[in-house]
Design a protein that fits this description.
The structure is a homodimer of 387-residue chains. The first copy, chain A, is an alpha/beta fold. Chain A has 2 domains: 226 residues, Rossmann fold, CATH 3.40.50.450; 60 residues, Arc Repressor Mutant, subunit A, CATH 1.10.10. Helices cover 45% and strands 12% of the residues of chain A. A 9-stranded mixed β-sheet of chain A has the order 3-4-8-7-6-5-9-10-11. A two-stranded antiparallel sheet of chain A has the order 1-2. In chain A, β9, α12 and β10 form a beta-alpha-beta unit. In chain A, α11 crosses α12. The longest helix of chain A is centred in the middle third of the chain and has 16 residues. The N and C termini of chain A lie far apart (68 Å). Chains A and B meet through α4, α13, β11, α15 and α16 of A and α4, α13, β11, α15 and α16 of B. Chains A, B: This is DNA processing protein. Chains A, B: Belongs to the DprA/Smf family. Chains A, B: InterPro entries: DprA, DprA_WH, DrpA_SLOG. Chains A, B: Pfam families: DNA_processg_A, WHD_DprA.
């Protein structure tokens, strides 16, 4: 949040800041670590002016030279507004500074390819900072199985019921099922795209994206008009991982973009989780490998997810399993109980022989078992009590 | 292996040793840690004589007082022979001393309930020491699902194909499926029982046990005539865990005896593994909990099992997944490649703008991509090469 000339906090960044960041998003293909650092050092307005004039270190010019002549910031902001979208900048109260801090920390540690975004194009009725406060990423294969889509939808539904926002990538398969599960629960879901918000991609999910935007969010760092590309999905994955507390991979083949998101989440120090499946399913191979390599924690339910990210759920899905009545018995009492028969009675001597428990102990244990309702006397000796 | 009066090694223990151990197996209900230590200190013949006369420490008398009058050793050995069984004692070459050492070590560390057996009743054509040299336990729920039984059978089949012996408990469900999988592969399987070898239990598996005995082994520490009992299955589980290098739980409910075997295997320092399944299946809950709690390593195949127990399999089940052709490209080359179109050509300037890669780099990368077969020149500029 910035302050105005009187030092009062305000919710929105001034227009020149927004224009400068819109320009910077346009001239550099993310992630642009040198540019991000340059903006951090000079502020967005001065940084933009310097880049435009070519007065920046070589590393910054490398990232920006191809497009720095482009003066499309105003057009991009107008275009976005026409699509019902806005540019959220770090100077806004809506900026998700806390979850994205992980990107700066990892970049500072020397991790490549995870520089923080310069700003984010956002469309939808939710506030990005609020959605990202308690958020889980649910991602997975496009070529998902019915099991995977069902599991993703159920998991997302339950997470939304637990007041968590669910982030995903709007792809076919697991991503779409996760978004739909949240919508069914009336919760908040966010789709983070690897293309401009107006790209209409994937084509079959345009309606879904519109529904997501009603109560949730559609997010991208790519300016209007940017087409989807494979490298952009990989770059986008750092935002899905960065904006959430943890990432759940629901289904993933041996090679899968979802595993890339999981690896990025791990690099960022976020929690990585994976859902198991039938061992014969090729779409669970990636999840099983993540779990086997201890790169992900197995989760089988929303409660598992909440436990793993460290928040206790208010209401457990299932009560603990019932104890068998004899669970409280010691080993010798258990053996004596086992040595009794349901119908015919046995003498303490017979019980001692059958159970291997010394006769004196048997004589002491039988009345104790009777008191606890496990044994009863009959004409021919002792027998097991009917339950 | 013992030595005869000339100091020559011999394969079989003398008759008095076998008689003494048969007597000791009859008088104490396993596990009998005090008796095991007493036998270790005095040797089986003297220990048996002292126990019979009541001249033993209280701890030993506690374990043996109920039955020490029983002089059934000769009858038990005759009875066993009539059923085609034998008593294997630690003085025999066939004794699986090395794997069972884990029981002594754990008992020495103060772990309760895992004392080594005094001897083992064995029926079948295989040698117990050889079977236990490279052995895996495959266990699981009696109330197994078709998925679980199928997975257990396939896993056991593949392990048997890798020359490993598969141990299990002959129960309905997973145990039976594991034994049958090995029999289908013509391998060696061993059933370890919680009752006498002649108990005919479980009734529906008498035929299966006969087939197991043909080329494999049926094993028990309980004398002929001992009926099955719940506590005996728990006690038996330490032998399944102890005789193998690792235990695989294929299916287990939230409460399951298979989890007891897994816990015992962990206590003994053996490898514990679990097979995942669909998250909606109640019979996979126990496996998922074991994996989630890091009490077991996830295994999805026989190769996973072999990797986990530390032996590399000679032949991998599946070749590594194929690499995509563009995997070898650097990030800038990948972005340039993505910026090309399949049909119409693009100028280097257009490619630079679209990819965000500096024009000078684009001019250098395009010919390099051409050399590697990723790009080609056409009348209108550069386009993606057809693969």
């Amino acid at each position: 949040m910035s302050t105005d000339e009187n030092g009062m906090a305000r919710d929105h960044a001034p227009d020149d800041v927004r224009l400068a960041r819109a320009y910077l998003l346009r001239v550099a293909e993310p992630p642009a670590p040198a540019l991000a650092a340059f903006v951090g050092a000079h502020g967005p307005v001065e940084a933009a002016a310097l880049v435009r004039r070519g007065q920046a270190p070589d590393s910054v010019l490398q990232e920006t030279s191809a497009r720095r002549e482009l003066g499309l910031a105003e057009r991009d902001l107008d275009e976005a507004e026409r699509h019902g979208a806005r540019l959220v900048v770090p100077e806004d109260a809506e900026w998700p500074a806390w979850p994205l801090l992980a990107l700066d920390i990892a970049t500072g540690r020397g991790v490549d390819g995870v520089a923080a975004p310069i700003a984010l194009w956002v469309r939808g009725g939710a506030r990005l900072d609020e959605a990202a406060t308690e958020a889980i990423a649910v991602v997975g294969a496009r070529a998902a199985t019915p099991y995977g889509e069902h599991t993703a939808a159920e998991l997302a539904y339950a997470l939304a019921g637990g007041e968590l926002a669910v982030f995903s990538g709007a792809a076919y398969g697991i991503d779409g099922a996760a978004h739909r599960g949240v919508l069914a629960a009336g919760g908040v879901t966010a789709a983070v795209l690897g293309c401009g918000l107006d790209a209409g991609y994937p084509a079959g999910h345009v309606g879904l994206l519109n529904r997501i935007a009603e109560h949730g969010l559609v997010v991208s760092e790519y300016p209007p008009g940017t087409p989807p590309a494979r490298h952009r999905f990989l770059v986008r994955n750092r935002l899905i991982a960065g904006l959430t507390a943890g990432t759940v991979v629901v289904e993933a083949g041996a090679r899968s973009g979802a595993r890339n998101t999981a690896a990025t989440a791990g690099t960022l120090g976020k929690v990585v989780m994976a859902v198991p499946g039938p061992v014969g399913s090729a779409q669970s191979v990636g999840c099983h490998q993540l779990i086997r390599d201890a790169a992900a924690t197995l989760v089988a339910s929303a409660d598992d997810v909440l436990d793993t990210v460290g928040r206790l759920s208010a209401a457990r899905a299932a009560p603990p399993p019932a104890r068998r009545r004899t669970d409280g018995l010691g080993p010798q009492a258990l053996r004596v109980h086992e040595a009794l028969e349901g119908r015919g009675g046995r003498s303490p001597e017979e019980v001692a022989t059958e159970s291997g428990v010394p006769l004196a102990r048997v004589r002491a244990l039988l009345p104790a078992l009777e008191l606890d309702g496990f044994a009863e006397r009959c004409e021919t000796g002792w027998r097991r009590a009917r339950s």
